[in-house]
Amino acid sequence: IRDLREAVQTFESGVIRSRLAFFSGDRQRVAESLNIPRRTLDHKCQKLERR
């Protein structure tokens, strides 16, 4: 981890991947469990797919 931004992205991706596995890929339930809008989750997932 080189900086704070990378640390946050690493943590966030781990949480999102874990929730996606727990909810069998149901993004609506993942977004609700994280208390974020579905659109925000979709945007974050797109970023994860690019990495």
N-to-C terminal Cα separation, in Å?
15 Å
Would you give the CATH topology? Arc Repressor Mutant, subunit A
The percentage of residues in β strands lies in under 5%
Count of alpha and pi helical runs: 3
Your description of this structure?
With 51 residues, the protein is mostly helical. The protein has one domain: Orthogonal Bundle (Arc Repressor Mutant, subunit A), CATH 1.10.10. It has 3 helices and no strands. Helix 2 (27-34) packs across helix 3 (38-50). The longest helix is centred in the first third of the chain and has 19 residues, at 4-22. The protein is elongated, with a radius of gyration of 11 Å. The mean pLDDT is 95.
Question: Which properties best describe this structure?
Answer:
mainly alpha, Arc Repressor Mutant, subunit A, elongated
List the helices and strands and how they pair.
Blueprint: H1 4-22, H2 27-34, H3 38-50
Helix pairs in contact: 2-3
Summarize the structure.
With 51 residues, the chain is mainly alpha-helical. 78% of the residues lie in helices and 0% in strands.
